[in-house]
């Protein structure tokens, strides 16, 4: 018995059955009826499209209708089939053309991506080659490196010549023990952010005194005229160390200064113009607490907050050696004029003496427990060592005998320097004063 649609009485192509009446329908016809009426056409009960149950039947080839037996009807059927074939062929050609366009576009994108990648690889290779070429030339570009090396040779010869004999003009131990306070100067730095943290005296012109303060500035002061020569600005935090370059013939004049800061940078500046020439970051990301130039002028040392002393090449701006041994943050370092010794101090209340040739500690001065060491300084002959901290102390080198103690400051002393031939001693303090000591 063939399935017949209860509405059209024809064999359905997609038969479905209604659970309400059990009747069989052509799917497209019953869906239209349900959408319009919402009930089963046989039983009249409520019915939805989701309630219809699809009947799976094998595909049936529809027999030719009796009308197709005539020649005109056969021609009509053939025309319909031809139209269908042409329509299908047209659709396939459209889809093929679209696929070709999409493929062509994708190929163009792929080619462009390959060209971009090739260009970027070429640029990266060129950049790496340029970087490799620039590395040997890294340094202070405004200073010819051959001139630095030439002058360093002269400085080394002069240092060695000075080191052979003690100058006759050098202040004797007895005279140094008789030193008294000659002057007490105030007002070099901001009163709202009090405290002088760093001190240096120009070796060839001892009238020039350089100080660094809590106010983030470095100040150049002439002690003879008692006038401020320059105020250097550039750091974002307090200036913990200031140093004159030892060579007054370097580039234009000797008016260049090296400074470090807790912003993890060391800087090289022109004190006449106040212009910052070079600023370098310590890659250890640890605050720099102090710095000192070697007498030869080509290397310098910095102290860090993690108990390390680092030696730097000024031309290459690179770290070349490290010293460890202290148990606290480094507070100060100082190179002896003999070029071989380095004195360092930290929050562990001791002064360590290092041999730069053997990279070892050969002497340790243990001070009183709780003594705060803020600065160290050798005189130009390497005969005396000054220590600034809870007070200002002067030691005789080699014997390491204490010669003099100054207690004039009302707060912690932060810096100590010797004048030429140790004719005077300068010290700074958190009490905002610069004091000068000598013979009356």
Automatic annotation (TrEMBL):
CDD domains: RING-Ubox_PRP19, WD40
InterPro entries, per the entry: Prp19, Prp19_cc, RING-Ubox_PRP19, Ubox_domain, WD40/YVTN_repeat-like_dom_sf, WD40_repeat_CS, WD40_repeat_dom_sf, WD40_rpt
The entry's keywords: DNA damage, DNA repair, mRNA processing, mRNA splicing, Nucleus, Repeat, Spliceosome, Transferase, Ubl conjugation pathway, WD repeat
Annotated GO biological process: DNA repair; mRNA splicing, via spliceosome; protein K63-linked ubiquitination
Pathway recorded for this protein: Protein modification; protein ubiquitination
Gene3D superfamilies: YVTN repeat-like/Quinoprotein amine dehydrogenase, Zinc/RING finger domain, C3HC4 (zinc finger)
PROSITE patterns noted in UniProt: U_BOX (PS51698), WD_REPEATS_1 (PS00678), WD_REPEATS_2 (PS50082), WD_REPEATS_REGION (PS50294)
Molecular function as annotated in GO: ubiquitin protein ligase activity
UniProt function note: Ubiquitin-protein ligase which is mainly involved pre-mRNA splicing and DNA repair. Required for pre-mRNA splicing as component of the spliceosome.
PANTHER family in the cross-refs: PRE-MRNA-PROCESSING FACTOR 19
Assembly notes: Homotetramer.
The protein's name in its UniProt record: Pre-mRNA-processing factor 19
Organism: Rhamnusium bicolor
Lineage, top ranks: Eukaryota, Metazoa, Ecdysozoa, Arthropoda, Hexapoda
